[in-house]
Amino acid sequence: MSEINTKIDPNSMIPMYKQIISVMNNRIEKGELKPGDKLPSETELMKEYQVSRITIRAAISELEEAGLVIRSRGKGTFIASKKELYSADDRIGFTHSCQQEGKSAATEVIGITWEYPTLSDIEYMKIEEDSPILITRRLRSVDGEPTMIEINHYGPQFRFLEQENLSGSLYDILQKHKIILGKSIRTLEVVYANAQEANLLNLKKGDALLLFTDKHQDENGKPLFISKQVYCTKRLKFYL
Question: In which domain, by residue range, is 69 found?
Fold first, then answer.
């Protein structure tokens, strides 16, 4: 495999780790990097791009989150095979689901920020890499027990959410703004709690969690936003 040898612009407004991500993603899309190919080591990438280890790790972490690479302890980082997605109808929402089961839902807003989009955001929502997106982070509880952490990525058209009370049902807010959800593309993974997740969910670091990622569409199939929900499986059951 040929070495990655594309320069980045340290004077660009786009963070350097984002530029590295874009370079690698382009090479994957063009077939220059194929499933199973091993990436150079962190040290080699640091030398190639003239950046810090932190910058390289941030780029690799986002590529891994997007499912483009796989890290294997003691072996290195490899280009991942593409995974199949499946459709799911997820239009009820957390608040209404709890109500249907006779349970009390509560929400704590833990963050509302504007950040640069990830690869998944750019690809799904068709936005520019230097166009900031709105990210909301909420802790959802059932009958007083912290149960789920929700992180949603919205395009600029959802700026109105900054003025809304996000401690209730998002679905009700969207309906108020005439936004009707259609189907979504859903993936499910088993992940393990990091320090922040463990603290919020009253768990131990490394405990198993379920990660649902939903790519929401409107009623006409137009991409809307991406939602990630990390669930504490000790306190919740799922019916399929």
Answer: 16-79
